[in-house]
Amino acid sequence: MLNVDARWTRSCKAALTTSMEKGSNPVATKPLTRPTRLASKPVFFFSSLLALLIFYNFVPQCHHAVQSFFTLESWADPSPRVELKQGTFIGTHLDNENHPVPVEAFLGIAYALPPTGERRFARAVPMPESREVFPATDYSLRCPGKQLLRIPGTPWLESSEDCLTLNIFRWRGSFSYQKKLPVLVYIHRGAFNRGFAAMHDTASMLAWSEEPFIALSFNYRIGALGFLNSQLTEKEGLLNLGLHDQKLLLEWVQDNIEAFGGDPNDVTIAGLSAGAHSIGHHIMDVNEERTLFHKAVIESGAATSRAVHPANSKLHEMQFEKFVAQVGCSGKKGSEILSCLRQAPSEVVTAAQTTVFDEYNPSVRWAWQPVIDDDIVSRRPLDAWKSGKWHKVPIMTGFNHNEGTMYVPKKVQKSDEFNSFFATLLPQLGKAGLKKLAELYPDPAKAESSPYVDTRNLTDLGIGEQYKRVEAAYGHYAYVCPVRQTADFASAGQEPPVFLYHWAVNKAVIGGANHGDQIWYETMSPLVRNVSPTHDEIARRFNSYVTSFIVTGDPNTLQGRKAISRPRWGKFSEGKKTMVFGAGNDEAAGGSQVGVASEWVDDEWAREECKFWWEKSEVPED
Fold it and tell me: pTM for this structure?
């Protein structure tokens, strides 16, 4: 039982806290865009100070409480804490000068048991209930794959199969708001063979939003560990494990996000490249009757990007057999193969999946990709669009002007090499298809009027005469035209709104407006904002459009920080117009042209070429 002095101390602390809260932070009726300054309410401040003096002079038992109230310890911001069925998690505060509002984070929370041992090459298992307390202050290790970024002494850039974790970010203090906040779930890129949650600065994207939301990023299995596709894994029900990881994460959000202040009925899924392809597959997943998401931001990708093969295609069987041989499991049959693969050392499995990927990388016939599985991907994506049966949600989607520069061989010199590249990539083209391809993409060596004539010193740049031609054709095939296809199908018949963009900022001498460039602007990275005032404006506009869509479903509702001026972004159904970002700007590539930050225009770029690619996508390869 408390003694009198203890009760007085507790009462004094409560009174002091209440007094100061009433004077400086009125209860918000909606999420605040920034903290209210104490000095903006001087009357309340001085009345609160007077109350403290009265307590101190006339109530001796309050002396200690008043003194401790003003110590640094009493004002220290405690670590954020959240209680879930799987345990209690203690988060951290992010210290980043680029954040205009402070952000708190819960890092490295597991959403599934480690997929190791007998759980390797199997569907992930949800976390059990627990009463333990766990630190959530550091990113987990990333999933094994063909990871490109390695920095010695950076633990979270190492890899481990125990990698199925998530990270949650929120404005500091946002949990106290009276309404649940919208939720963003970000799915990382990486060709389904590399990448990890922390490669996207989701916290910075959130910090620059005009209004708060709850942001989440996560790891999922990649490479053969996530997409070991073959007749055997089809028979065992083990296809597309990486996509199933993503679905399990979305289920976790439905069960747990309210504990962080989020609204499970207002979830936006967003992603670039492989993340965007993934979103396309989840939108097409008619076998999922639950509503796991409500809006989608699909950047440089689509369900129809590249070919989505049956699990037993010749290509996948060849890749599977080579992988099994590399691991050392040849000569075994059926379930014995899986048993052998599960017992192999992790480094052997990782090396084997990388070896097979590298063999097929030059042809861009990548290993370890999503396949038709009669589950999440129950049919060819194009057939799904034509059926009219998919999850109809508002969509923001877009493509970059030079999507192919990252992937095609740079020293393509002759027209025969151009033809050979596409004949290998798409055998179903045939002679007639290759002839039409040559008409749509004129040979710069034969036609002076070809848009792919390059007058620069190609030797100094290290590129061949056919490089611009092959990167344009591949970029259209793999990214631009599938994105346009998404916009066309999803906006037909007065479906939920679709907003289409075209990223045209020339950021590099060779790369141009390269695949993934927009992410630096979306997250308000100083690396691009400091290039010039125009680049800063482009970043602010793009971030405000995207975060407004996340919060409200409309890119125009929120104006962004500092209430920047920007054109209205209309629906794609309004005349099939596109928001073009940075047209004519080449400052980052060493030029002096400012161009236009953004404008909503009739954009027919690549329309004719896309008609060809759409026609060819009608013909399945296997």
Answer: 0.87
